[in-house]
Specification:
Blueprint lengths: L3 H16 L3 H19 L2 H4 L2 E5 L1 H4 L8 E8 L5 H15 L5 E6 L3 E7 L2 E9 L14 H11 L4 H13 L14 H11 L2 H8 L6 E3 L13 E5 L2 E5 L6 H16 L16 H11 L2 E8 L5 H21 L4 E8 L3 E8 L7 E8 L3 H12 L8 E3 L2 E7 L5 H8 L7 H8 L3 E4 L1 H5 L4 H12 L4
Parallel strand pairs: 2-5, 6-7
Antiparallel strand pairs: 1-2, 3-4, 4-5, 7-8, 9-11, 9-15, 10-11, 12-14, 13-14
Amino acid sequence: MVTREEEMQGILDQVLSKITPGDEERVAMERIASRLLERINGFSDEHGVCGMLVGSAARDTWVSGEHDIDLFILFPESTERERLEIVGLLIAGSVLSDAERIEERYAEHPYLHGVVNGYGVDVVPCFNIRDPSKIKSAVDRTPHHNSFVREEISGLEGDVRLTKQFLKRAGIYGSELKIHGFSGYLAELLIIHFRSFMNLVRDAVDWKPGEVIDIKGHGARAHENPLVVVDPTDPGRNVAAALSLDNMCRFIDSARNFLEDPKIEFFFKAHQTPLELGEIRELLHKRGSVLIGVQFQKPDVVDDILYPQLEKMERSTKKLFKMHDFRIINTGSIVSKKNIYIIFELFDRELPSVKKHIGPPVWARADAERFKAKYHEKKTLSQIYIKNGRYVIEIERRYRTPGPLLREELSKCGLGKDLRDAIREQKFQILSKEELLTKSDHEVRIFIHQLLTHNDP
């Protein structure tokens, strides 16, 4: 009879067979990385730089199918910052001279991203700082991260791959602002600390907000984050700072579910197909709720600029609905190639004409007099009266349905600069349930199903 441990190990072996890069894939990656590194080192005599391959490709913790190469241009510590930025971009441009496309991105200073033979390549200038406590820019830590992990990770590469794949399936892999999840470096540190994927998930089932992991025993500085993993190369930094509370809790829940009922489905997502229109209509009918959306053109900005603005817009719009007494059940956003959709599920299709307006406390005399003067000659639906020590009046509601509210007030909400430009130029549409369900962007229908059911098949 197969034991639970043997069953789990069989699943992990099966997963590893799918996600471990094969010889051909490794050779292709190494060939491209070596060629590009050679180009960086070709500038050594002229600019005193050297190239370094960093990230999962350098540490052999990458998952099959990941075609990402991270190259750093290390400048002497004495280099002026302006020179690093100017010369760094020139060298990066030369390195990516045969890239299919190139775009300038920004960390703490500019770097280039390009696509070479199907591989995404980041070429990042940094200072070659010997003492990581004296870094001049955030990216200067990366070579130190690289050295630490390479020294500690030997024999654990497969467990890192399992961890990354588990996190990907849960939708919580990536520290970028779009996701607020676990970075690759964080996954590596967790495995270095726990020594295996199974040890990690067994420990995670009992995590609580405020969990601290300190591999080198540095003594953690106070952090407000739900998970604190002290950077072994920089004791003042929390490697898990980008991880949200919800995503930490999703990891805890996934770990519990996997240990309770181990299945390969915890590592691989089934192919998603849009539900038939009739099925979603039936789901909405059963819920008795209202679906409404906002659609506008996606601005041409990088994700780390776009998603914080999108979160701000969602918060502002939820506040707008609340201010006008519309109750929200669920809300979410989806970014397609060309458009952004913010979708709301509301309790109320239509509100009554009457709105109860709460005024100041009776004892706040100056405010009370202004309140009474304001409504003295206005057409109202009641006289001013007192309830729980405050003046109250019932007035006619301006917006009874959510569509007109969004159409008239959305552009006045607090929006990020790029989204504000898109919205305030009236380049947005208010979409009804039917308009949302019949969109040609099939991912919209998939997203609506997930929004309503919280089911991620």
